[in-house]
Amino acid sequence: MAVALARGALSLRGVGKVYDPGGLNVAAVEDWTLDIAPGEFVAVVGPSGCGKTTLLNGIAGFDPISAGEIVLDGETIASARRPALPGADRVVVFQNGALFPWKTVLDNVAYGPIVQRLKPRGQAREAALALLERVGLSDVADAYPAALSSGVQRRVEIVRALINDPRVLLLDEPFRALDALSKSVMHEQVLELYDATHKTVFFITHDLDEAIFLADRVVVSTTRPARVKQVLRVDLPRPRSRALIASEAFVDLKRRVAGAVHEEAQRAFALGERELA
Amino acid sequence: MKPARIQSVSLGALGFCGFVAAWWLLVHFEVWRFAKLPDPLSVVREWTSRNPQYGVSLFTPVYYQDIWASTVRVLIAFVLATVLGVPLGILLGWNRTAREFLFPLLELIRPIPPLAWVPLAILMLSGQQSAMIFLTWIAAFFATVLNTMLGVTSIDESYLRAAYSLGARKTDALWTVIVPGALPYVFTGLQIGMGVAWFSLVAGEMIAGETGLGYLILNSYVQLQTATIVIGMVTLGFVGFLSSAIIRWAGRRLMAWQSH
Q1: Hey, is the C-beta of B253 within 8 angstroms of any chain A C-beta?
Q2: DSSP states along B95-107
Q3: How many domains does chain B have?
């Protein structure tokens, strides 16, 4: 095996995105720059509709960017001239969940390795089952997603992403639709998975507690057009536990993030922008 | 049986009995022109007679020959409608160019009632058999194509994105997202298609048939064999219900994931 250098260095360099509905030239993202180290967990917060999801879609390859470039492990994967193609090195977990309802949990998890022809179907399913066992989800392997709670669905979806050993995990407000209790359970499970795999994570949210609790750095994005307003390092030790939330360091971080986000939320409100993302 | 089930079954039976009773009363007391109709008892008697007055009952081969003739036509037309309609619907739903190229044409042809095709069908196709199958097919075909297309366009974009993000190619996406995702609509289309297939078939048989349930009904009308007319109608009800039930059953088998 070749020496596996740390994979998953993601650089966004002056990324911009202009939508042009009927010649209106709406700038959704402008000069968005950030370097993410391999294995780093970065949370991006900002008001709804500020272009966070646009940015993620650019990285994922769902939408072309109109300026700047996106570099993954030294390779330019997207630029204004050449949009990224979606691929299993940057798997997305979606806001409203996108487990295939017509496939069982097991077949959902085995999907990536099968369509990428990495393994024969049988072996891919075995590997998927093994992974499900490891994360304590083997009980629901044969269930269809509709039979599961949204919390379990989200967990399965993260496992479905992780089995592909992606360089970057792109999480697009994955817990938005969950209630507060399921959310806090999910946070601990995400941290567990993160501590076990140390993937680079690009996590979009507008929940500040969630951002600080999970991430190594919290990036506050401005309202449209999205720019990097502030980057805060979260120097809380890992593994992290729920008790952290009441700690002074956490509260202090939250105060700083909240101030910056609130400014942007007010600006967004004043602009009367309709929600885009 | 659960109480809810008992209630629904007995209500259904009550409705059925009420209908038959009303029919019997209307005929028996010669209300208005109902006197011209056979009452339910004489229909049942004729239907179950070993020696029917008008020559068609459960014990005569000709009854089954007519059922068979109609069933074969519907089956051929339905299979052709599915085999041609589902792929075309998927193409139209998935490929914008194909949709822009073909959809206006389809939308112009679709409103033409199947019966308006009768003369051309007879001129175009050799033999009454193929003409009747054509009429049956065209009705089922449009229902299948349009519902399949709708099914494809209604698939949530994030399933496709998830597939591509997990490394799927376009053909993978077709087989693992588009086809299963559209399946509920496809089956709705097949249900509707089966319904309109029987509808057009009977009309076709009345105009151009020499066998089949539609022919049986019209022929009995011409010969004033009213009990046989009703036998033909009830039989159509049965086979129509049965064919829909088969599609529903197949749909449930194929879409077990929906039953949660």
Answers
A1: no
A2: -HHHHHHHHHHHH
A3: 2
